[in-house]
Specification:
Elements (H helix, E strand, L loop, with lengths): L4 H11 L8 H15 L2 H14 L3 H13 L9 E2 L3 E2 L12 H18 L7 H11 L1 H5 L8 H7 L6 H5 L3 E2 L2 E2 L1 H14 L6
Antiparallel strand pairs: 1-2, 3-4
Helix pairs in contact: 1-2, 4-6, 4-10, 5-6, 6-10
């Protein structure tokens, strides 16, 4: 689709909003109505969210990311509950639990997965968050299912894992843009390169 003159002016204003310092806030206030019209406001909010998340400790970042992307699971999402916890045989959990109870359950689940990936050191939190959505067996292998390329690469001490991590963006064989955005956000906020 061809952009109108107004869209081009707003895009130009946004690209240069940070240049020159002082007037950035007033320029952004003027830009917000156009952002809403252009559908770009969610991107601005995501950038603000990311800056806020970067200030949190890594485990809190992980909790906030999972809560944001999983959302709240009610009875229509059975066998999942709260923020994506899979109800296991014998567990007595109620869909009437509060958000605070759901967050406590998420913290417990994420700590268990961190322990499972402890041998990966700084990458244990990143792997725990991924395993929370895709399952630890998809990463570590089980029975005839082999270890993932991501795990094999980390075991060899290789740190360039972006491609392998982003490979977990598919559903039924198709890459899903929303899952890819989630993976990129996880990498940005939780991946810790080794000091050189």
């Amino acid at each position: 689709r061809k952009q109108t003159g107004m869209e081009l002016r707003w895009r130009h204003a946004l690209l240069h909003a940070g240049c020159g310092g002082g007037g950035m806030v007033s320029r952004m206030r003027r830009a917000i109505p156009a952002l809403c019209l252009l559908g770009l406001f969610p991107c601005l909010l995501a950038a603000q969210d990311m800056e806020g998340l970067k200030r949190l400790p890594p485990f809190e970042r992980a909790i906030q990311l999972v809560m944001r992307y999983e959302g709240w699971h009610g009875p229509d999402k059975a066998p999942y509950i709260a923020y994506g916890h899979r109800i296991l045989p014998g567990e007595q959990l109620s869909y009437g639990m509060s958000r605070e109870e759901g967050e406590a359950l998420l913290r417990k689940d994420l700590l268990e997965r961190c322990a499972l990936f402890r041998r990966f050191g700084a990458d244990s939190l990143l792997l725990a968050v991924l395993a929370y959505q895709v399952g630890h067996n998809r990463l570590l292998g089980y029975g005839k299912m082999p270890k993932s390329k991501l795990i094999r690469k980390l075991e060899r001490g290789e740190r360039d894992i972006e491609r392998e991590y982003l490979s977990f963006r598919c559903w039924k064989g198709r890459g899903i843009p929303s899952i890819e955005r989630r993976r990129r956000m996880e990498l940005t906020l939780l991946y810790e390169p080794l000091p050189q």
